[in-house]
Specification:
alpha+beta
Length: 115
Amino acid sequence: MKMGPNICRYCYKEIKDRDELVTASNFFRIKPFHFVCFNELEKEVRTLWGFWKPLNGVSGNTRAIILAIVAAWLLFTDSLGEIGDLIGVVALYSVLIRIMSYLFFEIKISKQKHH
């Protein structure tokens, strides 16, 4: 199955270099952006509903690792009881969305760079 190129959702041009790629989420949506375009988008968007959170890079990876640890702790221990289980499931959201970002967007560029 051949996947199409990553197209920036701001300028609608292809993202060819992994260093340019910023994947961001807004609730359950994940979109690819050029790094420069994402910075422009952040300047324009001021509301909570239009807020895009970066998934890749140091901040996204750190958040996913921390929340994976929190989710595992809360789900596999009796800490906080049922509330802990609920918080653990919510914490898994960031981990799953980070994995989806890698599988749907980042892996395509890493494969393209080897050709």
